[in-house]
Design goal:
The chain has 257 residues and is mainly beta. It folds into two domains: 2-92, Elongation Factor Tu (Ef-tu), domain 3; 98-213, 3-Layer(aba) Sandwich (Rossmann fold), CATH 3.40.50.80. 14% of the residues lie in helices and 35% in strands. The protein has helices at residues 72-78, 116-128, 148-153, 191-200, and strands spanning 2-14, 17-23, 34-39, 49-52, 55-57, 62-68, 85-92, 107-112, 134-139, 157-162, 169-170, 184-188, 207-211, 227-231, 237-241, 248-250. The strands form three sheets. It has a seven-stranded antiparallel sheet. Strands 11-10-9-8-12-13-16 form a seven-stranded mixed sheet, with helices on both faces. Bound molecules: flavin-adenine dinucleotide and FE2/S2 (inorganic) cluster.
């Protein structure tokens, strides 16, 4: 982890989203890791915001993020312009356990909303290792489906679902893959989606990993503000920090509420 002074190279806005390309002297990250990002805007808001790495080109000194404007912090980030300065602490957190997968495994990736960008980075890394996952993306409506072009460009089989039926299958993303029997499933998105996936695949032989989102203050283990309830190997309940022990957890270890 390090604090990096980034400069905005490009900011591409669409709907409520902004794809930020930042330039700086950063350390390589692994899929699922994130940065705490804060622009040069003083005290409002005071705290940086956790944003997942969507892609990076270490040689060229470029790192990519996709941000949705949902409140003050994310609004400020989506309004950055070319040449603006921004500070980023990272890469933070653990990563998806890609070293456990072989190219014989059936791998499913499931994303919703701002959970999709880190999964795109995961897909890219899996492809580099010769693994061809199946990608399932869900959203409330067509305008909220993101990164379809980039995912398909990697030659990935992408299936879509929207709650209002405006694109792909009508209903929750979980409707798309109830029938599958994966060796690995990697998911990132809204809590209820992750919970439904965890319940569906709560059986032996399926390795299900979820990336949890929690409000974060520090991002590196000091404030304990991001703690969630989990179970250890003896099924004892305890707390773990999403920013340090996570954000990726074996779904069977999460105490779902
Ligand atoms: C590990 C991690 C990776 C993330 N990656 C991305 C990413 O790649 N792109 C992206 O756009 N967003 C990402 N997020 C979510 C992002 O951090 C929040 O949307 C942002 O912090 C909201 O801050 P705000 O000031 O804009 O909103 P606030 O004014 O603080 O809140 C606005 C609304 O968003 C909800 N909210 C705030 N923070 C979160 C959160 N962490 N999870 C769920 N709901 C939240 C609030 O309950 C409220 O309804 C990530 C979060 C985590 C924990
Ligand atoms: S955000 Fe402070 S401990 Fe996780």
């Amino acid at each position: 982890m390090k604090v990096v002074d980034f400069t905005v190279e490009r900011a591409k806005r669409f709907n409520l989203y902004c794809e930020l390309v930042l330039r700086g002297d950063f350390k390589p990250s692994l899929p699922g890791q994130f940065y705490m990002l804060k622009g040069d805007w003083g005290y409002h808001p005071l705290l940086p915001r956790p944003i997942s790495v969507m892609d990076e080109d270490v040689k060229d000194g470029k790192i990519f993020f996709l941000i949705k404007n949902v409140g003050e912090g994310s609004r400020r980030l989506t309004e950055l312009k070319r040449g603006d300065k921004i500070s980023g602490t990272g890469p933070l957190g653990n990563c998806f356990p890609i070293d456990k997968i072989s190219n014989k495994d059936f791998v499913a990736i499931v994303g919703g909303g701002v959970g999709v960008p880190p999964l795109y980075y995961l897909l890219k890394k899996l492809n580099e290792n010769g693994i061809k996952p199946h990608f399932f993306e869900g959203a409330k409506t067509k305008g909220d489906l993101i990164l379809q072009g980039k995912i398909r460009k990697l030659g990935c089989d992408l299936k879509l679902a929207t709650e209002d039926g405006s694109c792909g299958k009508k209903g929750f993303v979980t409707e798309l893959f109830k029938w599958i029997n994966p060796d690995f499933i990697f998911a990132c998105g809204p809590y209820e989606m992750l919970k439904a996936i965890a319940k569906t695949f709560d059986k032996d032989g399926v390795n299900c990993y979820v990336s949890l989102e929690e409000r974060m203050a520090c991002g590196y283990g000091i404030c304990l503000g991001c703690s969630v309830r989990t179970y250890d190997e003896r099924s004892n309940e305890h707390f773990e920090r999403v920013c340090c022990e996570g954000p990726i957890f074996d779904s069977k270890r999460v105490k779902w509420i």
